[in-house]
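Retro notes (design track)

What went well: tokenization of the new backbones is finally stable.
What didn't: we kept losing track of which sequence belonged to which structure.
Fix going forward: every design gets posted as structure first, then sequence, in one message. First example under the new rule, 229 residues:
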């Protein structure tokens, strides 16, 4: 095995009405799905900057495997997520699979932080060598990255997923287990219109998306720039 580090990017199939539901409430399900398609591309590009890591895409639903591989080209292996509604169950199963395949360090990221700095990934890859748990705190109270080198069931059980308490509950579980924890810098998820405005200030989108988003963002981007000034 050329590397002991596996990086898994968790993705859903970009189907209208089934992804980015909070964002869809503001921009509509079709545009939300197109944006999410772009986010996956951007996340894969970010993941690819982590050198000496085996790249995996942990996808759902499993029956979309051919469509995923047609839409998203690149040097990565595709791994179907276990068919469980609970995110913790799916993430833990992915960690177990990587450990069983012989990887000693496992990083998982989502596809909701498409402009995640590559420096955060590099820091995580280094930190998981000397720590039991690496977490990237998200500004909404969750986390955008988790890194492990062992299967710790308590980190994925009894967590109120998709709430503002995910990070704190995970840290509490880590404390009970007496794990050595490394926290990365905070970052944000693009889950709603204000976060999309923030993303558009510093990132390039395909021209077709820019044209469709302009009526939604034109009057609000100036306000957001004022907040960042």
């Amino acid at each position: 095995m050329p590397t002991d580090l596996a990086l898994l990017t968790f993705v859903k199939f970009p189907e209208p009405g089934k992804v980015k539901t909070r964002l869809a409430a503001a921009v509509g399900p079709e545009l939300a799905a197109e944006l999410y398609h772009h986010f996956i591309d951007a996340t894969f590009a970010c993941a690819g900057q982590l050198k000496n890591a085996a790249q995996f895409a942990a996808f759902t639903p499993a029956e979309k495997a051919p469509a995923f591989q047609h839409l998203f080209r690149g040097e990565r292996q595709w791994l179907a997520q276990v068919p469980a509604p609970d995110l913790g169950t799916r993430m833990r199963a992915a960690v177990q699979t990587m450990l069983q395949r012989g990887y000693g360090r496992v990083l998982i990221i989502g596809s909701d932080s498409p402009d995640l700095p590559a420096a955060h990934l590099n820091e995580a890859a280094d930190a998981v060598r000397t720590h039991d748990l690496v977490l990237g705190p998200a500004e909404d109270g969750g986390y955008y990255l988790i890194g492990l080198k062992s299967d710790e069931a308590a980190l994925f059980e009894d967590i109120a997923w998709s709430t503002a308490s995910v990070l704190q509950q995970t840290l509490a579980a880590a404390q009970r287990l007496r794990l050595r924890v490394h926290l990365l810098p905070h970052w944000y998820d693009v889950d709603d219109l204000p976060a999309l405005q923030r993303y558009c200030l510093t990132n390039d989108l395909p021209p077709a998306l820019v044209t469709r988003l302009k009526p939604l963002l034109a009057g609000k981007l100036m306000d957001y720039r004022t907040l960042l000034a």
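Added context from the reviewer: The helical segments are 21-27, 29-47, 65-71, 87-100, 118-130, 166-177, 193-202, 207-228.
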